[in-house]
Amino acid sequence: MSDGQNDISIEALRSGDKHEFARMVDTYSGPLYRLALKMLGNEPDAQDVLQNTFLKAFQHIREFEGRSKLSTWLYRIASNEALMMVRKRRPETNFTDTVQEQDEDQILDPVQFTDWCCLPEEEFLTSESRAALDRAVQRLPETLRIVFILRDIEGLSIQETSQALNLSESAVKTRLLRARLRLREELSSYFGERLDHLKK
Amino acid sequence: MSENEQPTCQTLLCLLSDYVDGELSEELCREIERHTAGCDNCRVVIDTLRKTISLYRASAAEPAEISTETRDHLFKTLNLEDYMQH
Ligand SMILES: [Zn+2]
Predict the structure, then answer these.
(1) Which of A1, A123, B1, B24 shows a CA-CA span of 20 to 30 A to A87?
(2) What is the rounded end-to-end Cα distance, in angstroms, of chain B?
C-alpha cells in the first residue's frame, strides 16, 4: 500500500485522538482487507480479521515504536490475525499439520514446461482466469501464502515482509521462491489447458 | 548441466526469485542466460514464472477498497462512527 504514514500522526494516535484513528482506518482498511480476503478466501472472515486488526492496533498503539513503518506494523497485526483465523478454521487433525510442515520445506522441481506466455492478453483478463489465480493462492500452505501476498500482491519489500512476519530475510526469500514456483505450476496447468483449447 | 561453473537446472532453481527480481550479480545473470540458451525447460520456467508474478501484480494494481457496508460496519464496531469523514 502506498504509505500514508506521513499524513498520519503517530503522536495523535498515541494520545488517543479518534479523528486520527478514523483517518488511519480509512487509509489502511482497503489493503488490509485485500490481504485478509486473499488469505481467507471469504468475505465474512476477512471482515473479522479487518476489525480485529484495528481493535488490536488501538489497544497496542503505545507499543508501536516507529522502528518500522506504520503500514508494516498494521500488516504485521493483520497477518497474525489472518493466520490465526486460518488455523482456527482448519479441522483439528495432526495429519494435515504434518503434511503442511513437509510441504513448506520442499522446493518442488518444476514439472510443467508448457510455455503459455504467448496466450492472447485477453485470456488473462477473463473472470475465469482471475478466479483461477485466486484458487491457486488459496491452495498454498498458509505460511507460504502470507509471504506471497505481502511481497507480490501488496508489494512490500523483502525487509518489510520479514518485519511483518518476524522472520529472517532469508526465510522470507525461501518461502517466496516456493510460493512462486507452486503458483507457476498451478497456472501452467490452467493456462496450458487454455492453450490446448485454443489450438483446437 | 556440463563441467566447470555452469549452473545446473537444480542450482538455477534456487536463484530464480532473485533472478526475476533483478537482484543477482551481472556475472550470475550471464551464467543463467548462457544456461537457458541451451536449456529450453529452464527458459520456459523463467518466462512463465515472470508471467505468473506479473499477473498477480496486475491483479493488485487496482486500488484496494472496501464496500460502503463493510466500512459502515467497521466504524460502528470500532466506535468511530462520529469520526467518519466522507
Ligand atoms: Zn536447465
Answers:
(1) A1
(2) 61
Q: Delineate the domains of chain A, giving CATH numbers in brackets.
A: 10-89 (1.10.1740.10), 101-199 (1.10.10.10)
The span from the CA of A138 to the CA of A38, in Å, is 7
How many CB pairs below 8 Å do chains A and B form together?
113
Per-residue pLDDT tens over the stretch B23-70: 999 999 999 999 999 999 999 999 999 999 999 999 888 888 899 999
| In a domain? residue B2 | no
A150 near B CB under 8 A: no
In a domain, B1, yes or no: no
Neighbours of B23 (CB within 10 A): 13
**Cell numbers describing residue B86:** 466522507
Closest Cα in chain B, distance from residue A200 (Å): 22
Q: Which amino acid appears at position B24 of this protein?
A: L
Q: Which residues of B touch A22 (CB under 8 A)?
A: 75, 80, 83-85
Cell numbers that stand for B59 in this block = 491483479
Q: What is the ipTM of this complex?
A: 0.90
What's the DSSP call for residue A61?
G
* Burial readout B49-60 (b: 16 or more C-beta within 10 A, e: otherwise): bbbbbebbeebb
Rg (CA), chain B: 23
Q: Find chain A residues with C-beta within 8 A of B58's C-beta.
A: 124
- Domain tally for chain B? 1
Statement: residue A161 has pLDDT above 90: yes
CA-CA-CA-CA torsion sign (A177, A143, A28, A153) = positive
- pTM comes to 0.91
Helix segments in chain A, DSSP class H: 10-14, 18-40, 43-60, 70-89, 94-105, 127-138, 142-148, 158-165, 169-199
